[in-house]
Write a structure and sequence with these properties.
By secondary structure, the chain is an alpha+beta fold. It has three helices and three strands. The protein starts with 5 loop residues before the first strand and ends in a 16-residue tail after the last helix.
Length: about 100
């Protein structure tokens, strides 16, 4: 399985492990990484459990950064669009998207 932040243990169970790099999030969590058990060994269930764990992490991150979940999701989509070449990056200080 090729999911980011997925760690398989020696016993075959799955864990969501992700480093915490931002100072506000470290202060909120009190640690430099999170590691949550996905509580399953079934490959079909791992994907769904991973999605829930990832959403949980993103919600915590948006709370730590003072953003709403919708703002955080929008930024993830924007960054993915730029990475794929579907959009140009916004200039520094620009608060709006422009469509030409």
């Amino acid at each position: 399985m090729d999911l980011p932040h997925l760690k398989m243990t020696a016993t075959g169970s799955a864990k969501y492990r992700r480093r915490v790099t931002s100072a506000p999030m470290k202060a909120l969590l009190g640690k430099s990484a999170v590691e949550w058990s996905l509580k399953t060994r079934d490959p079909a269930e791992i994907v769904e459990a991973w999605k829930e764990a990832n959403a949980r992490f993103e919600a915590i991150r948006s709370k730590a950064e003072g953003k709403t979940l919708e703002q955080a999701q929008w930024e993830l989509l924007r960054d993915a669009a730029v990475a794929q070449g579907w959009s140009a990056p916004m200039p520094c200080g620009s608060a709006r998207w422009t469509i030409s």
